[in-house]
Structure formats: structure tokens, C-alpha cells
Amino acid sequence: MTAEIPTVLLVEDEPSQRELLAYNLKADGFAVTEAENGEEALLLVDETAPDVILLDWMLPNVSGIEICRRLKSRPETRGVPIIMISARSEEVDRVRGLETGADDYVVKPYSVVELMARVRAQLRRTRPTTVGERLEYEDIVLDSETHRVTRDGKPLKLGPTEFRLLSTFMEKPGRVWSRDQLLDRVWGRDIYVDTRTVDVHIGRLRKALCQHGGADPLRTVRGAGYALG
């Protein structure tokens, strides 16, 4: 898995449904991790840091509603979009799912094409650069489609790693990213890179952002990591 590919955690206890969704998600360009029950899903969330979660309501032992409630109550997972999938079509069930914290609610049987569109819609909200959008922060503009960055209208020269670092920061200005989180997002979980490498590339990014002047927009948070702004 490369760091550029958004990851979907698929939580579904019915093997045929899980297989169908996993196949379509991968065909649509997503990396997929799978869980067949709630306990496994909670473990995988900590391991994989998914970008979107597809969560079935009716799961053995711990229900999807309870999983959603737990994830939305934790600061580190509160921002991960959850699309609840359920055979319950009554308005009261839909309202309960959304009030528990689900970002979207899809009723079975569903259109796979529509479900993929809903996944992409959540990504546009939380990780715009994965769907080719333009990001702006103060005088910095990043266009993920053309792979160009400007500051105060002047083009900046960035290496590919610095570009991915800046993309990550600009998706969530103000958020503090630890070195380990940046390694997972920018380099990918399957590649071993020393955390000191992050500091080296942060230094290069700072230099690139200030190549035409201007204040350094990156902030070092002692003992925690780095943030934009």
C-alpha cells in the first residue's frame, strides 16, 4: 500500500457482502482492510488509521451502533467518517444511526455504485487531495491534480515527499501530527523509515515554503510533532 491510496475499513460479518464490497472498493482505487466483527474492527482502527469506515449495523457480539459510538467518543478517531450500512429502513433507525455519530446512512439493499460515490464524498470532505482537489491555506495554494504549489502567487519547487507532507498538513490546518502519524500517512505503513527522516524532510519543506521569503508556516510542537499554522 502506498501512502497516496486512501484506506477503507470494511466491517461486515456476511462473507459474500464483504467480498463484493471489497472487490468494488479495490477496483475503485481504494486500499481495503476487512473485519467481520466489532472487536476486530476496533483493533484494526488502531492499526490501520482508515480514511473511511463502512460499518454494518448488525454485527455479532458488539453492534455497529456501539462501535460507532465508541469511535466517535475517542478524540483520535472522532474525525474518521463512518458510513453505516443497515437493513433497518425506518426513519427512527436512520435518525438513531446519525445521532450516534454516523456521517452517512445507507439502507440495504443498496446500489454499489451509489455507495462508492458516498465513500468518495466523505473523502472529499476529510482528505481532499485524494480526489484531486485544490487546497488553500493563507497564501499557499496546492493543486493535487497538477502537482503544483504556489505561495503568494509564486511557484515553489517541492520534492515528492515534501509535496505529500504539505498535502497532509493542508488537509487539516492546525492539527498536530506526530512523527509516527506522518510516517504512516506520507511513507506508508509497509515501509520502514526512521522517525528522524521526518525531521529531515520537514526541514526541506520549511526551506521550500520560504524560498521566496515569508514567515515559516510550520510549527514544531515540543514532544508532540508538527502542525501547519
Task: Please name the defining characteristics of this protein.
Rossmann fold, five-stranded parallel beta sheet, 229 residues, alpha/beta, Arc Repressor Mutant, subunit A, 2 domains
Description:
- Helix content is 41%, strand content 21%.
- The chain has helices spanning 15-27, 38-48, 64-73, 91-100, 112-126, 160-171, 179-187, 195-209; strands spanning 7-11, 31-35, 52-56, 82-86, 104-107, 134-137, 140-143, 148-151, 154-156, 218-221, 225-228.
- The mean pLDDT is 86.
- The protein folds into 2 domains: 7-126, Response regulator (Rossmann fold), CATH 3.40.50.2300; 130-228, Orthogonal Bundle (Arc Repressor Mutant, subunit A), CATH 1.10.10.10.
- By secondary structure, it is an alpha/beta fold.
- The strands form 3 sheets. A 5-stranded parallel β-sheet has the order 2-1-3-4-5, with helices on both faces. Strands 6-7-8-9 form a 4-stranded antiparallel β-sheet, covered by helices on one side. Strands 10-11 form a two-stranded antiparallel ribbon.
- Helix 3 (64-73) links the parallel strand 3 and strand 4.
